[in-house]
Specification:
Layout: E1 3-5, H1 25-32, E2 33-38, E3 41-50, E4 55-58, E5 67-75, E6 82-90, E7 93-100, E8 106-120, E9 125-130, E10 154-159, E11 168-181, E12 189-194, E13 206-209, E14 214-222, E15 228-232, H2 233-242
Antiparallel strand pairs: 1-14, 2-3, 2-7, 3-4, 4-9, 5-6, 7-8, 8-9, 10-11, 10-13, 11-12, 12-15, 13-14, 14-15
């Protein structure tokens, strides 16, 4: 099974719960969806999740190029002994939002620098923080009250396919709420599977429920299909709390 880092499924005899449709989709997408890039190249998606802390949620594999490692020599001040240590540093990414007129033509773009402050390569979650403390987002994506999703639940994937078609939305259902796969690491990782379409550039984008509440972040998809896999909210909350943002518990 070949996956790309980022088939409709029929269900018979299932009792599919009813979900309210997302009513404020337009403004929420425009205010919270962001494009991620570096050196002028757009390559991933992200979502503003905190106005107070200026936080952007994305996938860990989207920020790997922002990290670099180097070996430095450490001199013991008492013995003069020299040892070597590997140090990891991160550089800024470019985060931007396009603004539109009534015809959805882009009229402006706000670019800001963001620094990765936490990532988990196993669960493929990463958190960025906007560097400019004077920059205040208009909205933040609301988190769902419950971590769980259920089979048959309506979902929406929001992101920027190919880094060009920003603010794209695709709709589907949860096909399997507890799929364990080896996508970004050697250990099986929990994902939920959907049939909402996505391609490269969608990686790191938000997955919402029918109420417009965040339930996951897009990680991967299967080539030549609409099968996509999202990191569940439980893993996102765990990374945020571990980074010191206790309000996401």
């Amino acid at each position: 099974m070949k996956l790309f880092a980022l088939a409709a499924i029929a269900f018979f005899g299932l009792s599919v719960p009813a979900f309210a449709e997302w009513k404020n989709m337009d403004s929420q997408i425009e205010d919270t969806n962001v494009i991620l890039g570096m050196d002028g190249q757009a390559f991933c998606s992200g979502t503003i999740i905190s106005k107070k802390h200026r936080l952007v949620l994305t996938a860990a594999h989207c920020v790997n190029d922002a990290y670099s490692t180097k070996t430095v020599e450490i001199v013991d001040p008492k013995t003069g002994e020299i040892s070597k240590r590997t140090v990891q540093t991160s550089q800024y990414l470019d985060v931007w939002q396009n603004k539109y007129d009534a015809n959805y033509d882009v009229v402006s773009a706000a670019h800001v620098a963001a620094k990765p402050i936490s990532r988990d390569q196993v669960t493929d979650v990463a958190i960025l923080q906007i560097v400019d403390e004077t920059w205040v987002p208009k909205q933040e994506a609301p988190f769902a009250k419950k971590n769980q999703v259920v089979r048959g639940e309506i979902v929406y994937i929001v992101g920027n396919p190919a880094g060009t078609f920003d603010g794209s939305v695709s709709k589907g259902i949860v096909s399997n709420p507890h799929r364990k796969l080896r996508v970004t690491g050697s250990d099986p990782t929990p994902y939920f599977q959907t049939d909402a379409a996505a391609i490269g550039g969608n990686s790191g984008g938000a997955v919402y429920n029918g109420d417009g509440e965040l339930i996951g972040v897009l990680s991967a998809g299967m080539n030549q299909s609409t099968i996509t896999f999202a990191i569940p909210l439980k893993s996102i909350r765990a990374l945020l709390v571990g980074a010191g943002f206790k309000e996401f518990e």
